[in-house]
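Cross-posted from the bioinformatics board.
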Amino acid sequence: MNAYEIVMKSREKGRPTAMQYIEKIVEGFIELHGDRRFADDAAVIGGVGFIEGKPVTVIGIEKGTDTKAKIEHNFGCAHPEGYRKAMRLMKEAEKFHRPVLCLVDTSGAYCGIGAEERGQSEAIANSIMEMIRLRTPTLSIIIGEGGSGGALGLSAADEVWITETATYSVISPEGCASILWKDSGKVAQACESLKLTANDLLALRAVEKVLPELQFSDEFFVGLKAEIAQFFAQKRGVAPDRLIEERYERFRKF
Amino acid sequence: MNFEDLKKFFFKKPKNALEGTDEAAPQEAPSTEAVIPEKLAEKCEKCGKIILSDEMRENCGVCPKCGYYKKLNARERIEICAEQFEELFGEETSENILDFPGYDEKLAALREKTGERDGAVCGRATIGGVECAVFSMDYRFMMGSMGHTVGEKITKTFEYATENRLPVVGFVLSGGARMQEGIVSLMQMAKTSAAVAKHSEAGLLYISVLTDPTTGGVSASFAFESDVIMAEKGALIGFAGPRVIEQTIRQKLPEGFQRAEFLQKKGFVDLIVERKEMKEKLASLLKIHCMEADA
């Protein structure tokens, strides 16, 4: 598959969304709503549950599966409330020494009047800053689109993993082609140039692990669940100061 | 040209008066480079009137006819706000990490044109007698877009300030993350944020000064992670650019949307300052915070 085909695949209908990952991976999930300030943004779902018997907080950007759900979840484009909800849940996880799993799938944070009025920049900026100094283990997995700041807001983690046909990019290839080359016909070229595929990202050390998708079979989810459990088990004994220092170094290298 | 203009031209005010203070001029560091005026007069981008370049410069780049704020480059900005400045990390430079088409040529052309290696100037400065670390972004370098070099220099500025227990004043100007460096640019948002967090946890002050424009990845990282957010009058500040929003929502945006005044009204900006009073306001804020920190 070339980069353009991978970009199309990352957005494909029928691809499992965050909620489906949660159903397959998290036992006894209880969803927690709202940012305690303005609203409950359905583009970001979050809550608590268990992975292999250990408590965990899970936050995901949800695109929705059918038309009705897509509209309800705003196609996975979060408003500031979504990031503030995520931050609140992360702080709650920190208080109870629970690891945090983020499932990222968004074309980007929402661009609109309300989002700007309520401080989209401030919400993402502080989500990054809070997450980067969270005193509990964190893991982000990009499961579809990793669109720019909207994805990074939930990806300032100890490790970032990506499934093999997901992408992570500073800008959408469409945006890049139109801004840089003023030519919407150059999208395929932008897909290549941006180096946004899982393997490119691994080479650039922007992700630690590429997960084979196995057509999103049960085998995929069983394997993924085991890997997540193992990752958190390794991190469980690490002192918070060391977690933060290692996370600092993870991002410092860029 | 009327009499007032002539008078201003022939009887120039002393520089410190124009910086908004009548106190004795702080000992100015002799400029290392001689300022050679490129031209005698220039046209205001807004009203189109011809203004003497000296007058424009002395007015901090504000058009004396219509009040339009001309963009200042990174060094000009530091010059109007700091009485002393010593550059740091000037050796940092970018390369074409992703082998992005056309990027090498673009970088080479901009370096040639501006004499700068990239879009940020950083160092140690004195503002109103208070020692601080500063960074200042440059519109001439791809509208202050942040790639590896800009991110690295700003990160180093915060690390330097943390180590030397200095406050940071950051003059922000950016269209966002730099596309040509792809994911590496996006990672600069996290890298700078981590450095800001460390500096903050050390109990040190960070004032961000948002100037026109502050958008995208820069706005969604260190621009909004400061203790005090100052914005220059009229500056465009937002996550998405107005054109992108108009295309997304298919409607025209209201007048004044995403301007500094709008953001203050919505609760995201602490204070709006005019360019001429910027130095004085920064000096006061630095004094108030740094005194308390030492008490």
